[in-house]
Design a protein that fits this description.
This protein is about 30% helix and about 20% strand. The chain is globular. Strand 10 (about 255-265) and strand 11 (about 270-280) form a beta hairpin. Helix 1 packs across helix 5 (about 125-135) and helix 4 crosses helix 6. The longest helix has 16 residues, at about 160-175. It has one domain (about 1-280): 3-Layer(aba) Sandwich (Protocatechuate 4,5-dioxygenase, Chain B). The two termini are about 15 Å apart. Strands 1, 2, 3, 4, 5, 6, 7, 8, 9, 10 and 11 form an eleven-stranded mixed beta sheet that branches. It has about 280 residues and is α/β, with parallel strands linked by helices.
């Protein structure tokens, strides 16, 4: 049976990809951010997951405003990235797990979630940056991946409550998978940030820290917010919190926080990192 080891939240700011490429790990601007990740590296090395389910949002590389699915799941044997204009160079491709992907898709549809199945899929910085942060030096080659894409671009967006339920359905699907597989769930994006308009550069530290606290033991309290609430409290792009809620919903056991880090600003964005262990009970 598949086992859900835990979940990790992380920013996916494109500037991080360039900082990794330039090895700016000790740069005063970047050091407080990168210093948050060694604990996660050690945990992943200890746990040795077979599969990473990466919940992220596409930024116009694979989908655009004319065709924007609410939820989509990759079912390809391989995923490659391409530059969307940020100057991020191509990196080694990611190995897929089509069998588990189709199990997820079939289970989610049976659970009344209408998902778009993608037998070919490009992945952008929303996916590649977290994977590069979790597995430095392209060591992600040891794990298979399943991209799970959530619309945070074209309104209407799925509500926090809907995304939490979507994550719960993912958790049920994974635990019903017959083959042994050790799975980690990544929830990417955020936290508060706005990249354009009159509030460009907006950050709400108090709201961010509240979300990081409640998502561990009281995630249901965050599902009461609307998308408009998230935009007001966390900025236009702060709605990416819904990917964190999807990750948290997928954790089926007693959750224990192992590590956290919060840093502002990185490219006008509040960056939050959480490592959550999925226990029994």
């Amino acid at each position: 049976m598949a086992k859900i080891l835990g979940g990790i939240t992380s920013s996916h700011i494109p500037a991080i990809g360039n900082a990794i490429e330039r090895e700016l790990f000790e740069d005063p601007y970047w050091k407080p951010f990168f210093d948050g990740y060694p604990r996660v590296h050690r945990w992943l090395e200890e746990q040795q997951p077979d599969v990473a389910v990466v919940i992220y949002n596409d930024h116009g590389l694979n989908f655009f405003l004319d065709k924007m699915p609410t939820f989509s799941i990759g079912a390809a044997p391989e995923y490659r990235n391409a530059d969307e204009g940020w100057g991020i160079k191509p990196i080694p491709s990611f190995r897929g797990d089509p069998e588990l992907s189709w199990h997820l898709i079939e289970s989610l549809v049976a659970d009344e979630f209408d998902v778009t199945s993608c037998q070919e899929m490009l992945v952008d910085h929303g996916f590649t940056v977290p994977m590069s942060l979790m597995w430095p030096d392209f060591s992600y080659s040891k794990v298979k991946v399943i991209p799970v894409c959530v619309n945070t671009v074209q309104h209407p967006l799925p509500t926090p409550a809907r995304c939490y339920k979507f994550g719960q359905a993912i958790g049920r699907a994974l635990e019903s998978y017959a083959r042994d597989s050790r799975v980690v769930i990544l929830g990417t994006g955020g936290l508060s940030h706005q990249l354009d308009g009159e509030r460009a550069g907006f950050i709400n530290k108090e709201f961010d820290l509240m979300c990081m606290e409640k998502i561990v033991d009281r995630p249901q309290e965050l599902t009461g917010y609307s998308i408009h609430d998230l935009v007001r409290l966390a900025g236009a792009q702060g709605a990416e919190l819904i990917m964190w809620l999807a990750m948290r919903g997928a954790l089926t056991g007693k959750v224990r926080q192992l590590h956290s880090n919060y840093h502002i600003p990185i490219s006008n964005t509040a960056s939050g990192l959480l490592l959550l262990e999925n226990g029994t009970g």
